[in-house]
Design brief:
By secondary structure, the protein is mainly alpha-helical.
Length: about 350
């Protein structure tokens, strides 16, 4: 009888061991698939691993990374939450969920998740970079700059941090400082596409559209088809009077990223330049329906309405632009709406 019980115990032990080994093998294959960019295969591996044991934090974390790479940040947040439910001290899952929260625009929650990461890894340049990005999302540029500078001290050769320091300066209209950081970023890495794109934006603000076109073309040569770069080139083409090229780029950008309000704003500006004021109003209102806190969009909407002989509505748009302290909106409101 005792031998029989021992035999049953051994069978159960071997079965459990095989089960755990199979799950670990599936998880390993899932992460290998992610490294190769094979997200469909990765999803199947992690789902199968979870079917074996739904409390495995590593499997849930892998599933979260898969969702994130596939462009589903909300689903990623849920998966990372499961990982942390079963392993509350899983620092990697906190870092990953912070990135997902950043993508969903939940910047405070992104910062909350970075606290345990920074506590465990104070010398991680990437963690300080992530914190700075979340602070930029909250428009807390001074604190963002501090985080980026700490990251740069930890990794002086990081061109991405240099580029984000330039972005902070750009958002505050400190264009000379932005150019300084961008020059340093591109010296470190001439293939830093975001640096070329941001340089084009700075040059556009200075109305140097010929230089801006060269810079954004450098970005597109590195990352062909990137919707933000195409959108920005469409904007630059508009101000160079190359309307057909502008329209082509903006339409390509929308196909890839139809939720970006700046594309519709730029289509509105293009229609305004072409004196199609009804279409300009339509596109600019479309942009504002997606994001209402864009002062330049309110200003251009005011211009389109004014030129379409809708003066009352134009003044409302100018006033909204002025409320965001937009200089063009303030001047237009004084000029046309002070009677």
């Amino acid at each position: 009888m005792k031998n029989y019980i021992l035999f049953i115990f051994l069978l159960v032990f071997v079965a459990c061991s095989t089960k755990e080994q199979r799950q670990e093998s599936l998880i390993e294959k899932g992460y290998q698939s992610l490294d190769k960019g094979q997200t469909k295969q990765a999803f199947n591996y992690f789902e199968s691993a979870i079917d074996i044991n739904s409390e495995n934090a590593s499997a849930w974390n892998g599933l979260g990374v898969t969702h994130y790479q596939d462009g589903y940040p909300y689903e990623a947040v849920q998966a990372f939450g499961k990982a942390l439910q079963y392993k509350p001290d899983y620092t990697r899952a906190y870092y990953n969920r912070s990135n997902a929260f950043y993508q969903t625009g939940e910047y405070y929650r992104a910062l909350d998740d970075l606290e345990p990461v920074l506590k465990a890894y104070q010398d991680s340049a990437f963690a300080h970079l992530a914190k700075g990005l979340a602070l930029v999302g909250l428009e807390n540029y001074k604190e963002a700059e501090k985080s980026f500078l700490i990251g740069l001290e930890l990794d002086a050769s990081n061109s991405e941090i240099q580029t984000n320091l330039a972005a902070v300066a750009y958002y505050q209209k400190e264009y000379e400082t932005a150019i300084k950081y961008l020059d340093e970023a591109l010296e470190l890495n001439p293939k830093e596409a975001n640096a070329w794109n941001l340089l084009a934006l700075v040059q556009s603000e200075r109305k140097n559209f010929e230089k801006a076109l060269k810079s954004v073309n450098e970005a597109i040569a590195i990352q062909a088809g990137q919707p933000y770069f195409l959108n920005n080139r469409g904007y630059i083409y508009t101000f160079l009077g190359q309307y057909d090229q502008a329209y082509a780029d903006l339409r390509k950008s929308i196909v890839t990223d139809e939720k970006n309000p700046f594309v519709y704003r730029n289509l509105g500006i293009l229609a305004l330049k072409k004196e199609d004021y009804t279409e300009a109003v339509r596109q600019l209102e479309n942009a504002l329906s997606k994001r209402n806190d864009l002062p330049s969009t309110h200003f251009y909407l005011g211009e389109a309405l004014r030129l379409n002989n809708q003066m009352k509505e134009a003044c409302v748009a100018y006033q909204k632009s002025a409320q965001f302290k937009d200089l063009e909106g303030m001047e237009a409101y004084k000029k046309y709406c002070n009677d």
